[in-house]
Amino acid sequence: MRPSDTSNSTEEWEPDEIGVWILPNGSMDLNHHGFHTDVTKHLGVQITLITAYSLIILLGLLGNALVIYMIIRYRNMRTVTNFFIANLALADLLVDTLCLPFTLVYTLLDEWKFGAVLCHMVPFAQALSVHVSILTLTVIALERYRCIVFYLGQRLTWHSSFLIMAFTWTIAAVLAAPLAIFREYRYEEIPSINLHFAVCSEKWPHGTSRDGVIYSLSMLLLQYIIPLAIISYAYICIWVKLKNHISPSTRNDAITRRKKTTKMLALVVVVFAICWLPFHIFQLASDLDLVLMFKEYKLIYTVFHIVAMCSTFANPLLYGWMNKNYRNGFLMVFRCEDKPDSFHPEGSFRTRSMRRLTVNGRNGGHPPTAV
């Protein structure tokens, strides 16, 4: 598009994967140079965007750092499920530190101020974190499915859980790599007004958007539809198993704890799915040129991006609300207390029972009265 055409409307504009505004031929959005009105340039809107992103970053850093700290600090919290939760928190911290600040500045200024290296790394880091999150949620669901539905007492070992986490990061890095590889950092010039500014945009092979559409469709399947289908099936089976489970009274407490933990983890998945659904749909529609006619296209896209990013701080809030261990831990941190005996790690039925039998055997062989 020629520079003189930019004053017509916003229909020609489309976002890249991190919510930045470029022309179909890769040129930057020139709204801030006065070519046409852009509602995101209004002071009230910018204050709102800055406030929203700042709150997400602050809450995400505080909540996820607390989760990781608790799991490292208290030995009783070092269970396999909590290791995976820490992996989830680490991915969210990656977004809060390496993605959101740069995305906010680029959205407000419409110019990339951070150089060529970060131009490639920021979209890669955001895609990497999202892949790690959904893969970790899938692993948690499958692990609980294996232990609860098949009633397997042998949980994953620490060594196995760390290997699985390393594998999730490797797979996530491979899936996110195209956003780092097919990226271009360059300078745009408009001689007629002596304008010179930096651009960071996608540049797919063959110079067409077809590859971008294929990638978006693939990510919708691999990053959203397929994992959520697997997770949903696993948690439905778990819930049916726990609901219909008939056990001795000595195991009632363990059953109750498992139901609460499963409900919490399932809700984490639901929140993730709700937060990311509008963004995925709008991104795909953008690649297919179905929504570019909206006048406030940029604002709508930014709002959906903010909603998606809310998932980075929602998890610690859910843990504190639904899990007694995390709630106690958060309160202890804020009160500067240290009571590790207030944590009660969840274990499998069989391993918890064996552990109690061993302890009671040393105390005279009396059977356990409660689990």
From TrEMBL:
Domain G-protein coupled receptors family 1 profile: 63-319
Mode of membrane association: Multi-pass membrane protein
SMART domains referenced in this protein's UniProt entry, alphabetically: 7TM_GPCR_Srsx
Short name of any one Pfam family annotated for the protein: 7tm_1
Domain of life: Eukaryota
Keywords: G-protein coupled receptor, Membrane, Receptor, Transducer, Transmembrane, Transmembrane helix
Coiled-coil annotated spans: none
Family per record: Belongs to the G-protein coupled receptor 1 family.
The protein's name in its UniProt record: Neuropeptide Y receptor type 2
Organism name: Hippocampus comes (Tiger tail seahorse)
